[in-house]
Specification:
It comes from Desulfomonile tiedjei (strain ATCC 49306 / DSM 6799 / DCB-1). One of its GO terms (molecular function) is UDP-glucose 4-epimerase activity. Its EC number is 5.1.3.2. The chain is of the alpha/beta class and 330 residues long. It has 10 helices and 14 strands. It folds into 2 domains: 198 residues, 3-Layer(aba) Sandwich (Rossmann fold); 115 residues, UDP-galactose 4-epimerase, domain 1. 38% of the residues lie in helices and 17% in strands. The strands form 4 sheets. A 7-stranded parallel sheet has the order 3-2-1-4-5-6-11, sandwiched between helices. Strands 12-9-14 form a 3-stranded mixed sheet. Helix 4 runs parallel beside helix 5, helix 6 packs parallel to helix 8 and helix 6 crosses helix 10. Bound molecules: nicotinamide-adenine-dinucleotide (NAD) and uridine-5'-diphosphate-glucose. Uridine-5'-diphosphate-glucose binds next to helix 6 and strand 8.
Length: 330
């Protein structure tokens, strides 16, 4: 039997490139679609590459009608909470309009399986912690609102047109695969762990922690860090689960949270450097604490995070930036 081909949209980006690498090792043939607005050509390994923008409907429709994929994995998005507060229009266009284009191209070409990158930002301010899938969805950032709107679109496309969908609500993606030449390279970088590591390595001269007056045990925000390879594994399990279930909505996290100051302390300890970040104002759109109840994913996907130990994550990110201080060459 020949291997199965899947389409990884946003596969030149951070999580998508790790997923494509993992899925290729698991025996899938991969086509990556990306407009390289945030991703890197050199993060795509051993895959066909289709350079296209999801906002170009005719390019999408032609591609979908000329190719058959077992499933679509949709990672592409604008995905920064703070940026979405300042520029919501970008988020409504590049997330909702783009997802609509993709779904219409799928529908016209009879593609019927999609795994979608959703987020814990769909919940908004937690009323109860850890967050379960049935928690109220009341997103507080345009980013979270666009992701929830796409979840609703997928629900309707499933009911009316039979497109089966898994919406995987990631908590904070972290870690990398330096041995495969894969890392996290956003420009500028906005995520906490790479920023702390870059500061410790002397690659950046400033580190700001946004807010020290949150109602948490040390005043900084708390997040649940899940390794990108654990995410990748859950995606392939979700594809399998779509055989039996037409609609899947699951949290992907570890169930444990670390505060921003704990991340700084862990990098200080591992690197042997005493890090003194500046304290800045709170970043708009940031809830104080986001921690998953991942038990539903554990049950339905028979999945457990196995790469998400914090010290291991920090060591990998350290290795990546030590070996490639300027990130990917393109
Ligand atoms: N990073 C996290 O912690 C996190 C957490 C929860 C959910 N997510 C979701 O996971 C997905 C991937 O996140 P990431 O951190 O890898 O982001 P990323 O920015 O590294 O990757 C996104 C990729 O999509 C591409 N892209 C964006 N708009 C496009 C368009 N219109 N057409 C074609 N390609 C386009 C970019 O060039 C990039 O390669 C996103 O949907 C994000 O919302 C991320
Ligand atoms: O230089 C920095 C960077 C971040 N932070 C703080 O660190 C925490 C984590 O921030 P970040 O790493 O930017 O992740 P989030 O804002 O939590 O967002 C990520 O995680 C979300 C799920 O929680 C996803 O939906 C988003 O796509 C993804 O960017 C927050 O309190 C930030 O304010 C700092 O204090 N200084």
């Amino acid at each position: 039997m020949g291997s199965k081909r899947i389409l990884v949209i946003g596969g030149a980006g951070y999580i998508g490139s790790h997923f494509a690498h993992y899925a290729r090792k698991a025996g899938f043939d991969i086509t990556v679609m990306d407009n390289l607005s945030k991703g890197h050509r050199s993060a795509i390994r051993g895959a066909d590459f289709f350079n296209a923008d999801l906002n170009d409907f005719s390019a999408l429709a032609d591609h979908f009608s000329d190719n058959h994929y077992e499933a679509i994995f949709h990672f592409a998005a604008s995905c920064l909470v703070g940026e979405s507060m300042a520029d919501p229009a970008q988020y409504y266009r590049n997330n909702i309009v783009a997802a609509y284009n993709m779904l219409e191209a799928m529908r016209a070409s009879h593609h019927d399986r999609i795994v979608f990158s959703s987020t814990c930002a769909v919940y908004g301010m937690p009323r109860t912690l850890p967050l379960r899938e049935d928690h109220l969805k009341d997103p507080i950032s345009p980013y979270g609102k666009t992701k929830l709107a796409i979840e609703w679109m997928l629900e309707d496309y499933s009911r009316a047109y039979g497109i089966r969908s898994a919406c995987l609500r990631y908590f904070n993606a972290a870690g990398c695969e330096p041995s495969a030449g894969l890392g996290e390279d956003h420009r500028p970088e906005s995520h906490l762990i790479p920023n702390v590591v870059r500061f410790a390595l002397g690659l950046d001269d400033k580190l700001v922690i946004f807010g020290n007056d949150y109602p948490t045990f040390d005043g900084s925000c708390i997040r649940d860090y899940i390794h990108v390879t654990d995410l990748a594994n859950a995606h392939l399990r979700a594809l399998d689960a779509l055989e039996d279930q037409a609609l899947i909505r699951l949290n992907l996290g570890t169930g444990s949270g670390f505060s921003n100051f704990q991340i700084v302390d862990a990098v200080s300890r591992i690197s042997g450097t005493d890090l003194n970040p500046e304290i800045g104002p709170r970043r708009p759109g940031d809830p104080a604490e986001l921690v998953a109840d991942p038990s539903e994913a554990w049950r339905i996907l028979e999945w457990r995070p196995v790469r998400s130990d914090l010290d291991a994550i920090i060591s990998e990110v350290w290795t990546w930036f030590s070996e490639q201080p300027n990130g990917y060459p393109d």
